[in-house]
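Morning, I've got a small favour to ask if you have a moment. I owe you a coffee for this, so here goes:

…
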Amino acid sequence: MMNGDFVHAQAEHFAKRVLGQSPVEPGSADMPKIRSAFRLAFGRQPTPDEVDLAASFLDRQKNRYQDQSSEERLLRAFSDFCQVLIAANEFVYLD
């Protein structure tokens, strides 16, 4: 279910929302976007460890999509990241 077409489409919509609303800061372009995604998905700020893990994940994913344009590479990486957030227990289950 979490790897189905519907979830992929929702993750891409989520990624487009995050990419469209977060400002870019020199030297840490993904950090505001990571924080925004956590706020939207979980209603909280990420911990410093979560930010570091997310940034590493995004870097690895961007490298996986080297054959695509920089915009498409960024969208694909953030779509993958947003899919991870959607699949997290914190998103699926209420505490």
Summary: The chain has one domain: 5-92.
